[in-house]
Amino acid sequence: MIFMVLKKKTHPKFNVPNYGAKSRSRVPERWRKQRGDDSKKRIKKNFMGAEPTIGYGNQKELKGVRADGYRAVLVHDVNELQDAISNAKGIKITLSAALSSRKKAIFTKVARDHKVEVTNGVIE
After folding, report:
1. Contact present, 98 and 76 (Cβ < 8 Å)
2. How far apart are CA 64 and CA 72, in angstroms?
3. Which residues contact 28 (CB under 8 A, 6 or more apart)?
4. Hey, where are the domains in the chain?
5. What is the pLDDT confidence band of residue 49, given thresholds at 50, 70 and 90?
6. What is the pLDDT of residue 98?
7. 3-state helix, strand, coil in the chain (%, to 5)
8. Residue 28 pLDDT class (50, 70, 90 cuts)
9. Which of 52, 106, 111, 123 has the smallest count of CB within 10 Å of its CB?
């Protein structure tokens, strides 16, 4: 049986118009739908750049998959960690930001002992 990794589609950066302009340094790098009457971006002029549309979506199987092909599982406590370790095929563990650094170190060690990768674990 041949194992094939599905690759997620890429898309351009969706920024607000004039994001890179010198005079617009206050414009943050993020997307907001254009609503102005005279907005060239709203009427989809090509030179204004891409706008998020349904066509940039990925296949259903790839929803929630990281760019490297693994699913991320968020872990808050010991029970969730044990569930993640028992279903370890094709996942990477992400530790909750609410965990203390001591618990993060313990969870990272347990996961590494079971050969499960932790995306934001404590480096020893």
Report:
1. yes
2. 7
3. 16
4. 9-57, 60-113
5. confident
6. 95
7. 25, 10, 65
8. confident
9. 123
Cα distance between residue 39 and residue 34, in whole Å: 7
What gap in Å lies between CA 12 and CA 86, rounded to an integer?
37
CA distance 25 to 101: 37
H and E: helices and strands count for the chain: 2, 2
pLDDT digits (tens, 9 = 90+) for 68-108: 888 889 999 999 999 999 988 889 999 999 999 999 999 99
Q: Which of 91, 83, 85, 94 is nearest to 118 (CA)?
A: 94
Look up residue 49 and give its two tokens: 């750049």
The token pair at 83 is 């569930």
